Amino acid sequence: MTTHSEASAENNIPRESSRLLDNEPSSTSYAAVENGGQEEEQRSGEQRSSKARRITIIVLAVVLSTTVLATAWFASHYSSLRKRSYRPYGILNNGTHDFRQTLIMISLDGTVNDYLDRGITPNLDAIAADGVRAQYMNPSFPSVTFPNHWSLVTGLYPETHGIVGNVFYDPVLNQTFNYKSAAGSWSPKWWGGEPIWVTSELQNVTSAVIMWPGCSTSFNGVRPTYEVPFDDVTNSDKKMDQVLQWLDLPLEDRPQIINAYIQTVDQHGHKYGPYDNLTLNALHSVDGSLGRLLDGLKKRHLSDIVHIMVVSDHGMSESSNDKLIYYDDILDETALGNIWKSEGWPLLGIRPYPGREDAVDDIYQQLYEHSLLPGAKYEVFRRENMPPKYHFSHTQRVPPVVAIPFEGWNFVTHKQFNDPTKVYQPRGVHGYDNFARQSRAIFVAKGPFFDWDLGRGQRLKPFVNVEVYNVLSRILGLQPAENNGTLAGFLQSLD
Ligand SMILES: [Zn+2]
């Protein structure tokens, strides 16, 4: 769609250029040379002087005409650059209303990247065809919901923003964060970093959030202008309708960034397994809600004006009775008796009882020696020796010993699961190595920024989700807060 402001940019500058070209010295300057020469001859009659003046004037005329031509060339060149550039502060128009750059960011919790290759997501396919799709996006470690939703909107690794799990203990506060305890978990003391809606509000850009994990906390008192707090009842169609209602607000009230969270796919993946038909049907249904949003944008003539970005926080692996690690068979009675807290499921993050910190060495050593045996299905690290790729060391919220099962494997005790006639639940699990294949998340986006930066239909190189915050900031023309992104908001195409 051509917008009013773009149209004026296109029409005005070439018109100005052609006026400049019409005013070339062909009429004015040559006449000046002729007139000037005649007057000079009549006044002095001196042939040589007249010739010298004539040459001077011709030189001046040539310089003038060159300048005019150069100016015209620069003007026209500048206008073509301007047409090709992305203007985060530009005003677009859908034919009836002005729009500032606007972005709808939607998270489909637990959507595995390879779901997009199954032909059951026509609307996600349509967004990718009109925009870009990452080959895959790596979550941050650990690949669970709260840490990754916060990394997506702050650009920080969990060890930096502090939400290191869905449930974790902070030995400094001597308190436990639990995402299910709304009252306790919204306290700002847990949440580091600056989410994109706070970056926006601090720079006078209106924001709106639907149920995004962390949205009900405040940052020095700053909150999104519009907020729908979490509930487990509102379906994805209703969430998309809310998004469209916000777009119908007058310019001055309308949010420029909307973050919406949809948990349906994750819930089905856990319950039935990531590739069960019930889970894939749930995905197809959620994709239908995206279609509802796309239709709503089309009706409003906003398809080429409003940005859409659809992401997931992590993938999902299939669990089974054949993939259980009985850690009470690995640790002896003394070591087991020293364990105070076991955190970070499916990780086995171990804290010994207060006053028994010395037990860490023994617990670690027993787990480590077992991990070297053939057929062992996990790796184990002390907090201070976590591999750098995990960015999971620099906070005491990480337990002193962390065992990471291979994807699809689960730590249990015989007390927790000892009946082989039962099926291990949940059927789908995530939280493993963030670079493992099944952990991969989706990234699909379209809009004027991607048209300009990458072009339509591009596949992007894989990237870690801490890059997304800078992309959001670029789209909206915001000064980003300090973050762990490395690409400055410019994702890279595979070509
Ligand atoms: Zn999740």
TrEMBL record:
InterPro entries referenced in this protein's UniProt entry, alphabetically: Alkaline_phosphatase_core_sf (IPR017850), Phosphodiest/P_Trfase (IPR002591)
Keywords: Membrane, Transmembrane, Transmembrane helix
Keyword Magnesium applies: no
Domain of life: Eukaryota
Transmembrane segments annotated in the record for this chain: 55-75
Gene3D superfamilies per the UniProt record, alphabetical: 3.30.1360.180, Alkaline Phosphatase, subunit A
Ranges annotated as biased composition (Polar residues): 1-15
Keyword field contains Transmembrane helix: yes
Pfam families linked to this entry: Phosphodiest
Annotated region described as Disordered, given as residue ranges: 1-49
Extent of Basic and acidic residues compositional bias: 40-49
A Gene Ontology molecular function term of the record: nucleoside triphosphate diphosphatase activity
GO biological process, one term: nucleoside triphosphate metabolic process
Protein's UniProt name: Phosphodiest-domain-containing protein
